[in-house]
Amino acid sequence: MGILRSIGQAAGHVEGPAKVTGRARYSADILLPGMLWGKTLRSPFPHARIVSIDLSAARELPGVHAVLTAADLPEVRIGRFLRDIPVLARDRVRFIGEKVVTVAAETPEAAEDALRLVEVEYEELPAVFDPLEAMRAEAPRLHEHPETYEHPPIPPIGGDSRFHPFANVCSQNFFRRGDLKLGFTAAERTFEHTFFVPPVHQGYIEPHACAAAIGADGKIDIWLSNKTPFIARNQLALAFGVAEDRVRVNPTAIGGDFGGKGSLMDSALCYFLARASGRPVKMVMTYTEELTAGNPRHAALVTLRTGVTRDGRITAHQAKLVFNCGAYGAFIPLHFVHGGVHAASGPYRVPHMEIEALRVYTNTVPRGHYRAPGAPQTTFAVESHMDMIARELGIDPLEFRLRNVLIDGDESPMGERWQHVRCRETLMAAAEAAAWGSPKPPNVGRGIGIYERATGAFGTSSATLTIDADSKLTLLTGAADTGTGSYTVLGQVVAEELQAPLSDVIVIQGDTDTAEWEDGAGGSRLTHMAGRATLTAAREVSSALIALAARRLGCAPDQVQMRDRRFIASDGRELDWDSLLSWAAEHEALPLTRSGSYVAGHPVEVTCYAAQVAEVEVDPETGQVRLRRIVTAHDVGTVINPLTHQGQIEGGLVQGIGQAMTEHLQVRDGAVTTAHLGDYKLPTAMDIPELSTVLVESKTGPGPFAGKAIGEMSNVPPPAAVANAVFDAVGVRLMDLPVTAEKVYAGLRAKENRQ
Amino acid sequence: MNPFTYTEPVTIDETLATLTRYGEEAKLIAGGTGLINLMKQRLVNPGYLVGLRRLSELAKISFDRGLRIGALCTHRALETSPLVREHAPLLAEACRHVATVRIRTMATIGGAVAHADPNQDLPPALIALDARVKLRSPKGEREVPIDQFFTGYYETVMQPDEMVTELAIAPAPPASGYAFLKFLPQTADDYATVGVAAMVAIDRGRVAGVRVALGAAGSTPIRARVVESALRGQEPTPRRLADAAAMVADIVDPIADFRGSAEYKRDMAVVFVRRALAQAVARAQAGGRGA
Amino acid sequence: MRNIQMQVNGKAVAREVPDQRLLVDFLRYDLGLTGTKEGCSVGVCGACTVLLDGQPVSSCIVLAVMAEGCEITTIEGLAEGDRLHPLQQAFIEYGGFQCGICTPGQIMASKALLDANPHPTREQIREWMMGNLCRCTGYYKIIESIQAAAEGKTGP
Fold first, then answer.
1. pLDDT over 70 at B91, yes or no
2. Considering chain A, what percentage of its residues have pLDDT values greater than 90?
3. From CA A460, how far away is CA B49, in angstroms rounded?
4. Which chain C residue has the Cα nearest residue A208?
5. Which of A416, A497, A518, A712 is catalytic?
6. Confidence grade of residue A2 (pLDDT, cut at 50, 70, 90)
7. Which positions ≥6 away from B149 have C-beta within 8 Å?
8. What are the percentages of helix, strand and coil residues in chain A, rounded to 5?
9. A5 falls in which pLDDT band (50, 70, 90)?
10. In this structure, how many other beta carbons lie within 10 angstroms of the beta carbon of residue B205?
């Protein structure tokens, strides 16, 4: 390896000029000749039988080209893993906002007018909104024959897994370690607490949008806000009942994902409208549709029971997680809320453990993935619980954690044997930067939250790299850049390996026909997996160039080295980069293309930690919590791009602050009532705290150049850190999110009344 | 949005004639920041929309034995106007707390008054300033004291053929101070959980004049007369201010919403009335008019 | 329907539109200027920010007929050929965007800020920009980008 030139460079996004000039094309920007607008009519009832649908008036409206109900579609259900949601409701609706009728018309106004002319007769059915109630034998059943729902084979992660084990339970998973009974017998104190985390929305500013067009040759072109175009293509082909190569998913810029843009949303429906109307169709959700019928984060009820010795060592830990998955389980790519389960035991040494995780159907909006799915819910619970235990034992919360966190040689509760464990270091770095333990003014408190998550290692990534005679390096990837800077980072990997300036690298996202398979963004895998595939392609190009140089120099390739853009033979003869390229071009060896792929093999051996300290000030008269400062410390590998890396930390952090303090997707009787961004409160530029970031670096990551993942770290600990800080400040413990002024106020009054 | 016909008169008389012609079918639109959202949700469906932006005579701010503010002055214009800052700093400050700069660029003072949303910021500020609303109809002109203007949730004393033309604000008495407090426990861009505007004049150590008003505390903006009378003529000690503020609990009638329960808002009304009074008194004692 | 004319990015345009056409739809679909984005549709998020006679407005809650005769500046009107506006350059160099969906609105809002106040403090930037929601950056780098542009710290 030569001198690091591109790795570590704080390069701005390579697609920047398109994004700052308005040229970048998002799905809603797609304009095709003859394009129609699709809109959907949604259920006003949480649970009802569809008695009849009268479309006659809608069909007669001028400008209307297609009006469809489930009767016009094949009987198919879709889903990222479990395929349980119909494209349009068939006979029955299961949540307010479920799609019942769809229309394609010349203008969005005409489409809306047509929907207002549709008459649907419903017969309301008893509904259930609370997961605990839904699990009772007498509760109304949402799905009559869930055992008929298809899904891929359950992968060998996730303990003991069952789909639809009993009433309204979508999935049930058990994870066990050691002997729980033994662990609790060894405990000198046992603590049990229950926490509740309400749903929150991903809050991307771009509502889902898609477009579909069918070519004369039957080729189906799709544009959609989706972070995993190849997976979307396969799911679409399944929904359409066509071969995968009949469907082409085209790249578009994605206006924020955070895990929420992995489903098909309206795109299957959009195709059926295009097929029925014979015209291209576009569908753009309104933000109200996003909030009321998107795929927000699961609400979770978390009950934790932990046994400890008097000196604060954990002997046993039990977690029961009840996730409300809404009316359908289709919006997550796995059989359980993986991240929530993984975080349920925290980064602690737990000899005896049991986790039970349930996803329960209710007549509410279906839930999907959002940045570190499940983890903020269980981490809020676990880290609050640990704080409560520490205080009950009279041990400083930092000290309590230091006694229990994993160190090298420990096996994690989930059975991993991590190498180079940096948990203590990360925790200490956060504590030091926050001056943990130093004096503080009245009503000011500090709280800790810690989270562990490994770099994603699953699926397959591919990359194709071409060098041309002008020395331009064109990287063709199938990976969408959801905004994280992945094009830039992949470009830096190429530039580094080929010792080229980043400006010589062009990153192109191909469509699903031109690019090779790519599992895409998600699970903190992209820099690792696509980065590795890119590195392989770059190495192949580099080997090919060396072989050419050897030919030119008349020696064997293994006698030539590439260094500082020169090719040096072992006998000392040299060839510079430009001379080689001109010679190669003359000999028709350019452009030269090589591919690389990377397939997940054995699990990664190192993990990543994020530790945060929040400092809050509570107004004792109002309960208002002001977040004065946050320290976020991260266990990181080689930072490929400090600008985008820090961007991930900052953006995630503010999302976590939103979940901690202001965001709450309120659902009443099955209806989402925070139905626009005036009522669903995303943090603004005025709501961010003073921030200190500490990077605890080590060159041990599994990614290219020893990088580690950063995307799903900083958003997880804030709710716990803030809640713990509020307790530290005024002695009020909140067991549910968000931490609102009114709840703190109520806690203060209750405390006063006790005294 | 339902279809409608847009018209844009160039004089006040023409505007009033249009209003008279279409009656309840017509809606006036100034900045439209409130109305367009209601129309998008099809909560308001006018057949005729009468645009006011050509009536430039209503976009003026002047001082003539008091501040005279044309109904079409935007929040942004008021926030940045040297005249307003000098003669009614409370109003400038209240404007600065309204939503975001994009809304303030479009939203007008006449619209804020006619819209009569009890959760907005300008009505309590205007009540504390003892503003008068000038209304015009084809029959003539009348002035209504602002504290008699609001009659219910989104309802006012205005007749269907009337429009707001001006807000008049008398000069503040000497040695007076103001406060405008907007309690925002969620994010910085939100409706108030409770909003309080106060003006206090001090004469020889005693409260010579006081006006206190609340927003987001009931179905209309509320003038806290009971608080005012408890303080008039009194020495403004912290104890007296607190006792007076406590009385507000009986006159507010907040509704529970995403910004808090009714009980919480009632408790917060007491806290913020007390704080506003304290701030206004301190400003009055520091030399008047809040500077 | 009504025929409306306005100056958009310095060019006179005229179109016949229904009275209820919103400015954002007029720009995006009648004129094809899709750089202006629509997010919340209720005037809160700021993605649709454009300048109307130099002032920032939410084009999702302004009727196109109410902009008749006005000057509109959109994100497409900022760069001069290939030469980016200093704010555009700063947003790239300082990481002021990630996914980019809010970026046209952020840049138009910050342009209005710098036009009104060429040397804002950090607090003034936060206060002015609080109406432009961003879900990717957490705002820190947006604030830095605007400061850098104001201080002329951009470009090679």
1. yes
2. 97
3. 58
4. C39
5. A712
6. very low
7. B113, B116, B133, B156, B157
8. 30, 25, 45
9. confident
10. 10
Give the Cα separation of B100 and C46 in Å (integer).
9
Task: Tell me which residue in C32, C45, C143 faces A685 most closely, judged by beta carbons.
Answer: C143
Query: Can you read off the two tokens belonging to residue C56?
Result: 């920032």
Name every chain A residue with its beta carbon within 8 A of the beta carbon of B265: none
Nearest in space to B153 (alpha carbons), one of B228, B216, B233: B216
Pair A452, A479: CB distance under 8 Å: no
Stated pTM of the model: 0.97
H or E segment and range at residue A283: strand A281-284
**Token pair in block for residue A705:** 């150049």
Q: Report the side by side order of strands in the sheet with A36-42.
A: A64-68, A99-105, A36-42, A281-284, A209-214, A220-224, A247-250
Please judge whether A740 and B261 are an interchain contact, meaning their C-beta atoms are less than 8 angstroms apart. Answer: no
How far apart, in whole angstroms, are the C-alpha atoms of residue A482 and residue A227? 6
Given an 8 Å threshold on Cβ–Cβ distance, is B258 in contact with A674?
yes
**Span A361-389, mean pLDDT?**
98
pLDDT, tens only, B132-148:
999 999 999 999 999 99
Angle at B243 between CA B239 and CA B244, to 5 degrees: 115
pLDDT tens digits for A48-73?
A: 999 999 999 999 999 999 999 999 99
Question: What is the band of C155 on the pLDDT scale with cuts at 50, 70, 90?
Answer: confident
Helices (H) and strands (E) in chain C, counts: 5, 5
Question: Per-residue DSSP letters for A143-187?
Answer: -S-GGG-B-PPPPS-SSEEEES-STTEEEEEEEEES-HHHHHHH-
Residue A632 CA to residue A648 CA, distance in Å, equals 12
pLDDT in tens, B278-288: 999 999 999 75
Chain position carrying tokens 């820099």: A527
Tens-digit pLDDT profile for residues A402-436: 999 999 999 999 999 999 999 999 999 999 999 99
* B189/C44 touch (CB, cutoff 8 Å), yes or no: yes
Report the distance separating Cα C42 and Cα C133, nearest Å.
13
pLDDT over 90 percentage in chain B = 96
* Calpha distance C25→A405 (Å, rounded): 55
Q: If you average pLDDT over every residue of chain A, what do you get? A: 97
Beta strand segments in chain C, E = 2-8, 11-17, 49-52, 55-58, 71-73
Compute, in degrees rounded to 10, the torsion defined by CA atoms B262, A661, A675, A37. 170
Average pLDDT for residues A179-193, to the nearest whole number? 98
Which residues pair with residue B202 across a beta bridge? B207
- Whether A712 is a known active-site residue: answer yes
d(CA A389, CA B254): 40
Of residues A405, A393, A408, the one with CA closest to residue A448: A405
Does residue A601 have a pLDDT over 90? no
Per DSSP (E only), the strands in B41-193 are 48-51, 61-63, 67-70, 132-137, 140-145, 150-152, 155-156, 163-169, 176-183
Q: Are A604 and A702 in contact (CB under 8 A)?
A: yes
- Residue A597 pLDDT > 60: yes
Q: Is B258–A679 a contact, with Cβ atoms under 8 angstroms apart? A: yes
Neighbours of chain B (3+ CB pairs under 8 A): A, C
Q: Which of A553, A705, A694, A545 is nearest to A640 (CA)?
A: A705
Question: ∠ CA(C21), CA(C24), CA(C26), 5° rounding?
Answer: 50
- What value of ipTM does the predicted structure carry? 0.98
Please give the pLDDT value at position A159. Answer: 81
DSSP A526: H
Give the Cα-Cα-Cα angle A367, A372, A377 (nearest 5 degrees).
Answer: 70
Q: Give the number of residues written for chain B.
A: 291
Q: Tell me how many degrees the CA angle C132-C138-C142 measures, rounded to the nearest 5.
A: 60
Q: Rounded to 5 degrees, what are φ and ψ at A559?
A: -100, 5
